[in-house]
Amino acid sequence: MKISIIKKGFTLIELVVVIAIISLISAVSIISVAGYIEESQLTVDRTTVKTLNTVSRLYGIKNDTLKSDIFMGYETNEQRLQQLVNDGLLNNVIVPKHKDSEFSWLINEQLWVLINDGVMTPLTSLGSTFDEISVAIISKINDYYLDNNHYGRTWGDYRYTDIGLEPDEWNIPISHVHYKPSGRLLRISPEDGYHFEVDNENGVTRILTSDSNWDLIYNVEDNNWYYHSISEDNIIDISSLKINN
After folding, report:
1. If I label 50, which of 15, 18, 110, 144 is the partner at 20 to 30 A Cα–Cα?
2. Residue 59's CB: how many other CB atoms inside 10 A?
3. Extents of the domains making up the chain
4. Residue 63 — very low, low, confident or very high, per pLDDT cuts 50/70/90?
């Protein structure tokens, strides 16, 4: 008995379809890898901005220039970065990893920011401004209570992780403000060399300095902000908050 074996090859149409599918998969893979590389570069640049702000604060303290623009006399970002190198705070002038990014010094805010494709990248995962960040943290404190019927812990990294924040992101001041969630409270204090000015309910201005070891305190349970401690006499109008050096 003979066994007949039929050999069948691909038709031209089948080959074209296979090639098209392989090309499509390759294109998608290349796009995915490119997107991953870009996001990784931006992540590095965001971290670098934090480093620049840390060393710039040291530069200001070292040169006693916290009362004005710490880079007074230097007109470009390149000159400011070079001055940090000259002062031994950087090994070399840092260049962004992402091709569409640049590091820019904001004179009024005394901060380095990351500009990507002409748009300022938020300083944190919750935004850049005091209003954005404080409202977001307060919302997280409330959400944690609703989900667990009790407030988060008040010590160590737990004060951050319980409400879904990464401690490493918040261990430095953001726009000259330290944020410290603590159970039902949100505590804020000024960066070294800065102070808060805020009015109480009678319009009297109260000042909180960085060396006082005091905080402005938001109490989730009564929706009030307080100066230093929670008492009726210490209620303040947070909309009047000014952050000065």
Report:
1. 144
2. 20
3. 40-120, 130-244
4. confident
